[in-house]
Amino acid sequence: MPFFWKPYTSDVTNFIGELKAKKPTLEAEQRAGRALLWDKQLDRSALADYSAAKVPQSPYVYFTRPKQR
């Protein structure tokens, strides 16, 4: 390998590196946004109740069955 060889970095990688250098708090802001929207504690008992209350879907949803007498 020649001594002037350097590893290739793509334009996107360079852009992200420059963006993080310009705004060092970016990663912390991303983590805070993720925690706000996605990282939530689930209520396991409510989740079990929801899954137990599901009604099975009919095979053909656009067909309305006549009421049986």
From TrEMBL:
Pfam families found in the cross-reference section: DUF3460
UniProt name for this protein: Acetyl-CoA carboxyl transferase
InterPro entries hit by this protein: DUF3460
